[in-house]
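Re: magnesium ion structure - here you go.
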Amino acid sequence: MRTVITRRLLALIPMLLGITFMATMLMHLAPGDFLDQVRMQRDVDPDYIERLEQEFGLHNPWYVQYFLWLSNVIPWDLRSDFGYSFHYKVDVWELLGQRLPATIILSLTSLTFAWIIAIPLGVLAAIYKDSVFDRISSILAYAALSIPEFFLALLALFFAARTGLFPLGGFTSTEFEFMSPFRKFFDIVHHLVLPTIVVGIGSIASIMRIMRANFIDNIRSEYVTTARAKGVPEGIVMFRHVFRNAINPLITAAGFAFSTILSGALMVEIVMNYPGIGHLVFHALLQQDQFVVLGALVMGSTMLILGNLLADIMLAWNDPRIRYD
Amino acid sequence: MAKNGNRNSSSTESPSPLLDVRDLVIEFRSRGETNLAVDGISFEVRKGETLAVVGESGSGKSVTAMSLTRLLPEEPVCRISGDILFEGRNLTRCSEREIRKFRGKEIAYIFQEPATSLNPVFTVGNQIAEAIKLHRPEVNDVEKEIIRSLDLVKIREPEKRFRDYPHQLSGGMQQRVMIAMALACHPKLLVADEPTTALDVTIQAQIMDLLRDLKQKLAMSIILITHNFGIVSGFADKVIVMFRGKIVEAGPTEEVLRNPQHAYTRALISCIPRMGVRQKRLTTIDYAELEKAGDQRLTENRNNGANTVE
Amino acid sequence: MTREKGIFRQVLERPLGLAVLSLLAVFYLVALFADFLSPYETSDQDLQKTYHPPTSVFWKDGGLHVQRYELAEPQEMVYRKIEGEGAPIRFFASGYEYRLFGLIPAERHLFLVDEPDRIYLLGSDETGRDNFSRLLYGSRISLSIGLVGISIIMVFGFMAGGLAGYFGGIWDGVTMRFIELVMAIPGLYLLLVLRSTFPDHLSPAQIFFLIVLILSFLAWGGTARIIRGMTLSLRNRQFVLAAEVLGQSSWKIVWKHILPNVFSYLVVAASLSIPGFILGEAALSFLGLGIQEPSASWGLMLSQAQDMKVFMLNFWWLLLPGAAIFVTVIAFNVLGDVLRDIVDPKQKFLSR
Ligand SMILES: Nc1ncnc2c1ncn2[C@@H]1O[C@H](COP(=O)(O)OP(=O)(O)OP(=O)(O)O)[C@@H](O)[C@H]1O
Ligand SMILES: [Mg+2]
């Protein structure tokens, strides 16, 4: 098990090298470069530009630039330097750190929301297979999987504007700074409700479908007959025996959900003007703020790979039959 | 006794049998088609007695066994009629709640595939404990009881094995665990549905020896379901032979084996793979031969299509 | 190819398949005749009638008339009906010129009203363009992007997957590592990075193909993997081994033995990605990185609906393109599922 984890973590390194290399190449294929943008900003110190050009070797061809960036990133002196954001004029690492909490909070709330709703629905749909409830819930799941997320976000904003029940996007109110801690908490929750629902609805549908299918598969297995033959009440057969088996494949889904924690809400963040990583990446791309994009790519891809690894580990931990050597 | 049987066996003197099944009919319905899986069979099992139910695949043996504690699908899919008297109580009239008190406690089962019959995500100890906690709430030290039951089925180092997951055990060991689980609540009747079919030949013998041993030790009744006459002799007191949902022959084991009345029984007996004798291929039942033998009932059964599914 | 005919017939035999195919057939007909069915061009503005609500239609003097409106509150963009006033709707009248199927010059339209009146069946947008016409034109993008996309995916998915599976070795390793690399990048990030690589000012056709190419690049990996898996299992089958023994060239074997055997899977695997193309284009256009004004695309139309004014003043008709995307995606999702059930009922190779 441990060797598997080590191996997978080591595989992360060439993967990230490949991704960032590809990304740098692609960004340099784009017409113009960020220097035009920086030079247009008069408040940026020309010396700084000079120093930057020195530091990152901007006169060099892009592949040389890439290796220079890389040599700054690799923590020789125990410090990774991911570069500087031209737009926000701060260190990329710091900038990502600022935006991280909002995205992570949104991902966690929407995941919790999705799981809490989807699992019971999936179980009920499986137990009452072919009932009216099952039919309706599977049609709704289908609909939820087909609706574009940004359209759902628009509908949510429309709803908020028409009813006035929820704020029109954002993470906090403008007067957030002056609130009591309790009000602050409430304010964040208030802002989170709609994005959480919008991001969660897609996952509800897919988790529900997986859960239902697994549950139905397991209801037919022989160990269910054994449990019934022991005199175990039907409810316990379902929720102890079948449930524990049916939840297994969902653990992969959980790992996958973790892997999209940073990138999953991109469209919703943009539409609902939610100041998270996705929002940042989008605007950084438009402004060719290249180090921000690279930094975010590294982070997003690392999460994706780690998430898949996590899923495998949790699966092995939950299902005694699976052993990696 | 067996209505369709050719002989009577009333050797035992005990007045009321442990299990008395009368005119049991089981039908399955799917998409408007009905499939008569069991067609009016009657048999009884006395205390301490072992009954073997023999028949080819699809003859309705498992369904009969499952129907005893209503483990079959519910009403619209599966309909059961007839009487199942267990110690005088009619199980067909019991509510779902009442019948649960019989499952595992009075009538326990072991199945053909130990590998899939055990829940893969729980330790074997856990699964045995579930039965004990359910039916013997008076037991304080459940762990000790688990170890005792594993010891009973001759599992070495039970205090270690009970923490194992099913997949960590071999097929033979898994079946022993199934037996331990079935016996943990001291049932009066053990239904063993082809307990050795999925196992290697050598392990088959071990499991049969174990069952024989336990039968003597615990003085319980056993229904042994099999399609193999080979394991019946020396184990079962009586045999019923099932064919297409009906009992075609019933009687004391030795008698049936020595002098089978029915062509189908004879065919089954000739299928016994003899130990040590390598057969070119397993004898299959030749229906044309049977029909030539002129057994009317048999031909009828076949023609009215008792088995439409499969 | 009798087997493929069989698949099509099997889809029609299923109620769901029949329903979805009929719906899609109607959609494609509408897209094909969009210019005939639309009263206005996509760029036809009327700054006097911005954010006009859907016009109602009534019957008077033996003909259909479109209701006339006046701007009651310019601040709030509230239009009010002028009771009893309307303009007659003319059917098969001549309007703007277009080329039917891109070939035949024509100027007839299904219905029109005379200027300065306008017919807005589904309202107008912020520059007074007809939402209905734009919706019809926009359907051409969404309905064609998936089809173009899967043809690309099928070619690349088969080439990469089939060859990787058949030849194995280095080719297999390189292809699979590359797919893993692409799959390790969050999809939307990659989509955005790839799009930003290209200049903004491209012709509509160039942009369309650019989007298709980018989306295919994101999607071909899944198909390639499925095909690789199947090819691996085919490689050791009798007929392939026999062909090898007979000395047929590898290319010929791949072409004559592998392709026909994986073809139905290839089609279905690729068709499962149609919704991804539709949603991807819509998202890009919505973000302003896809189809550009004044062309119409459902995603682009929706980006107008992001305006606070739209929410506050309840211009709900501007959300209709979203509903159109939704219905189209559902239809393709159902079709994909029906196809998969037919080709791979146990979901051994194709799963979502
Ligand atoms: N759940 C079910 N639904 C429909 N039909 C069933 C069901 N279970 C069993 N049957 C039918 O009942 C008949 C008897 O099956 P049963 O399992 O009792 O056979 P068996 O004698 O145990 O055979 P085997 O030796 O293969 O175990 C078969 O024809 C089977 O098709
Ligand atoms: Mg059976």
